[in-house]
C-alpha cells in the first residue's frame, strides 16, 4: 500500500501532528509519496529530508490499494481530489482547518486512523461528481459548480433542465450542487441539506433579486443548461475551488460525471452523526 500525501503551503501545519503522521507511516512500514509544496513544509518544520523519488509535482501516480491523505481542511481535500490518478483510490482527509466537514479525522486520532487504513477497517462511500460542457476543458467538481458575478453588477442566468426552461435568475448567480456539496456553498445560499446517498442535484440561486426564487432539487440524470448574461462584462464559473472566466453570452451545460470519489467516513460515523457534530452545535446530542 502506498500513501499519497497532499497539502498546500497556506495550510496552518501542526508540527506535532506532522511528527505523529510520519512516525506512524514509518511504524506501519507504509510507502508514501508527497507533493512538492508539502515536502518543502515538512522539511522546514521537522528538519526531515525527503528524497526526490518520493516527491510529485502535478499529479501523483497510484495503484489499486493506494490511499490519498489530504492534510488541511475541506478546500485542501477538494484540491487533492482533482489530483487523483485513478477513481478507485480512496480519499482520507485529516483536518487542521476550521470545520473539516469532509475529512475523516480532526488530527487528534492519526495513529488510530492509520491503523484502520493499514488494516482496511475504514468505511468508505462513493460520492457523485459534476462535469461541464461548453468550457475550454472539462471541469470536475465534488461539491458544486457555480456561476457567479464578477464585479458590482448582478448577472442573469437563464436556466434549463433537459432543455425545459425553468427560470432566469437575476442576482449574484446560481449554484449547482451535488448531495455532498449541499452542506457547502449551496447551504449558505439557502439550499437544503441532502443525504449524500441521494441521487440528485440542487440548484440554489445566490442572492436572487426576485425573492420568490427558491432552490430546486432535480434527478442526477438531468442536464442543466446555464446561459449567462453579464451585461457586456464577464462572470466566473467555479468548479469547487478552481475558477474560470465566462464571457457575456456564454452557455455551459452541467451534468453527472462518470468519475466518482471514494470518501472515508469520519471515525466510521454516519452522515447524520457528522451533520449533528459539525453543523448543529448547541442541538441536544442525546
In short:
The chain is α+β, with helices and mostly antiparallel strands and 286 residues long.
List its salient traits.
disordered C terminus, single chain, elongated, 286 residues, 6-stranded antiparallel β-sheet, alpha+beta
Structure description:
This protein has 286 residues and is an alpha+beta fold. The strands form four sheets. The protein has a six-stranded antiparallel beta sheet with strand order 8-7-18-15-10-11, with no helix packed on it. Strands 14-13-12-9-16-17 form a six-stranded antiparallel beta sheet. The protein contains six helices and 19 strands. It has helices spanning 15-27, 36-46, 74-81, 110-118, 185-188, 271-279; strands at residues 2-6, 31-35, 55-56, 67-72, 94-95, 124-127, 130-133, 140-141, 144-149, 155-161, 164-171, 173-177, 200-206, 216-219, 224-229, 234-239, 242-247, 251-256, 261-264. α1 (15-27) packs parallel to α4 (110-118).
Shape: elongated
Structural class label: alpha+beta
- The N- to C-terminal Cα distance equals 39 Å
Q: Determine the mean pLDDT.
A: 91
Largest sheet data: 6 strands, antiparallel
* Percent helix range: 10-25%
Strand order of the largest sheet: 8-7-18-15-10-11
Number of helices: 6
How many individual β-strands?
A: 19
Amino acid at each position: 500500500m502506498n500513501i499519497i500525501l497532499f497539502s498546500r503551503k497556506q495550510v496552518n501545519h501542526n508540527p506535532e501532528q506532522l511528527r505523529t503522521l510520519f512516525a506512524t507511516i514509518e511504524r506501519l512500514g507504509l510507502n508514501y509519496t508527497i507533493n512538492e509544496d508539502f515536502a518543502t513544509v515538512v522539511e522546514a518544520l521537522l528538519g526531515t529530508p525527503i528524497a526526490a523519488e518520493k516527491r510529485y509535482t502535478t499529479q501523483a501516480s497510484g495503484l489499486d490499494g493506494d490511499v490519498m491523505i489530504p492534510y488541511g481542511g475541506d478546500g485542501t481535500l477538494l484540491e487533492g481530489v482533482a489530483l487523483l490518478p485513478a477513481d478507485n483510490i480512496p480519499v482520507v482527509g485529516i483536518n487542521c482547518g476550521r470545520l473539516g466537514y469532509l475529512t475523516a479525522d480532526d488530527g487528534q486520532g492519526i495513529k488510530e486512523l492509520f491503523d484502520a487504513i493499514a488494516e482496511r477497517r475504514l468505511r468508505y462511500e462513493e460520492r457523485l461528481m459534476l462535469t461541464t460542457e461548453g468550457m475550454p476543458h472539462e471541469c470536475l467538481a465534488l461539491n458544486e459548480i457555480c456561476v457567479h458575478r464578477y464585479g458590482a453588477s448582478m448577472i442573469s442566468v437563464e436556466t434549463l433542465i433537459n432543455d425545459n426552461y425553468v427560470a432566469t435568475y437575476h442576482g449574484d448567480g446560481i449554484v449547482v450542487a451535488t448531495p455532498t456539496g449541499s452542506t457547502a456553498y449551496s447551504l449558505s445560499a439557502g439550499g437544503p441539506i441532502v443525504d449524500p446517498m441521494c441521487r440528485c442535484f440542487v440548484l440554489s440561486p445566490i442572492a436572487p433579486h426576485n425573492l420568490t426564487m427558491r432552490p430546486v432539487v432535480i434527478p442526477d440524470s438531468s442536464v442543466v443548461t446555464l446561459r449567462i448574461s453579464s451585461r457586456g462584462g464577464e462572470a466566473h464559473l467555479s468548479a469547487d475551488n478552481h475558477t474560470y472566466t465566462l464571457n457575456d453570452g456564454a452557455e455551459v451545460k452541467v451534468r453527472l460525471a462518470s468519475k466518482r470519489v471514494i470518501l472515508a467516513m469520519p471515525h466510521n460515523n454516519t452522515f447524520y452523526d457528522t451533520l449533528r457534530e459539525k453543523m448543529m452545535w448547541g442541538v441536544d446530542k442525546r
